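Thread: Newbie trying to understand structure tokens

Hi all, I'm a second-year student working on a class project, and my supervisor (Dr. K.) asked me to get a predicted structure for one chain before our next meeting. I've only ever worked with sequences, so writing a 3D structure as a token string is new to me. If someone could post the tokens and maybe explain what I'm looking at, I'd be very grateful. Here's the chain:
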Amino acid sequence: MRSKKPILLIEDDQVDAMTVNRALKDLMVCNELIRKENGEEALEFLRNENNLKPCIILLDLNMPRMNGIEFLNVAKNDAQLKMIPVIVLTTSHEEWDRIQSFNLGAAGYMVKPVDYKQFVEVVRVIDLYWTLSELPA
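---
Reply by user tm_fold:
Sure, no problem. This is what the structure looks like when written as tokens:
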């Protein structure tokens, strides 16, 4: 990522979070990775004025307390948060999840590959796309 802003990962699964972190390090992405385990924790972090807003949010869908769809619904209707790009990174192959994610303003939807090399490639594509994208300040 070109920005020095952090990347926010909203992911309840420890192994998946470690995999994202490892992939970012393998790709030499130097943005800080901040992890929250559900949508409620993420919203609390994002609404705290002392925290730097992330350059991108990587969002799992299947989480306790507030899942990814619920998070998207709140975040994309919040004037302070709606411009932050959200990429859904999930195990769900459900068409309904894809439709809901895009209807609620997700910038992308990617299924987590099981194979680590494929996972790194998915993260590389996300990094490349958002490095080239011109986002509002």
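A couple of things are worth pointing out once you decode it. The longest strand covers residues 86-90. The chain has a mean pLDDT of 93. Feel free to ask follow-ups in this thread.
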